[in-house]
Amino acid sequence: MKLFEDFDHALYRRARHKQNRKHILIPTVITTFALLILIAALEGVNLDLRNNVGYSAIIFTSFASSAFILFITPYARSSSVRRFISSYAIGAVFGEIGYLLTNIVGFYVAAAVVVFCVAILLFETDNAHPPAIGLAFAFVIFQVDYAGLLVVVAGVAVLALIKLAIEKLGVNP
Among candidates 155, 173, 165, which has minimal Cα distance to 65? Predict the structure, then answer.
């Protein structure tokens, strides 16, 4: 009997997954266009993601993760615009502090301090948006200076505006 129950449960999950596939197309298209708009905006202000010593491209990868969370899982707690903006502000500030700390305490200590502080602050302020830790860590690894903050501000602004527009239009599946 247990074998048949497990089999029925597996069939149910597979059928449910296929049923939900139609609901993934629109958010996936939105995510793709949001990232294309973000690339165009950053290149419009002369921040070429491919030729900027790599650090802006690494920072940009955290935006790809955020776009997935914001648009593909629009009802998740971490996909709220407030949490997105707050977490990136925390990540960018502490990432910049970590960049400055590397000259004083070394890479490993600075990286540990940044990851610890960002994780605690995201939890304590109820702003859990995981890509923000990756952003802060990228600041330390690639020694991102103040120009990286422009990439973060531009990226946050573009993705937040797109998310707000989509919410206003009621496009979420």
Answer: 155
